[in-house]
Amino acid sequence: MLSVFPQLFTYQEIAPVLLRVVLGVAFVLHGYPKLFGGFGATAQFFSSVGIKPAKFWVAVVGIVEFFGGAALLVGIFTQAAALLIAVNMAVALLVVKRKQGFVGGYELDLAFLAMALALLLLGPGLWSIDLPL
Fold it and tell me: What is the pLDDT of residues 74-87, one digit of tens each?
């Protein structure tokens, strides 16, 4: 196999890092407003789709997204964070997005779910401070 980085690291070592960084940034940015600004609006939305008690679940989701994303960025508790994010995305898909169809609906959630599951299976890769499960 042709390698761009033949002596530094393998694709298998760098691929999880790419997943961690992209997914981590996305979830920090999704979790931040839930915890630090849009809590009430998100709670109203959760309540409108039947997720109750809404304030409790907004706090849980905000914590999972913000701190789970941060953990992925740093590479600590990677597989635990990936599992929690995968559960978060599975619920979003089943409760909110599935009726919206694929394009413009659940495509991004499904991609995030797949990325989280890949990290759960692959572990953190290079440049992390934890070990795979």
Answer: 999 999 999 999 99
Tell the burial category of 49 from Cβ atoms under 10 Å away from its Cβ (0-12, 13-18, 19+): exposed
**pTM for the whole thing?**
0.88
**pLDDT of 122 strictly over 70:** yes
Q: Which of 55, 30, 6 is nearest to 112 (CA)?
A: 30
- Please state the domain extents for the chain: 15-122
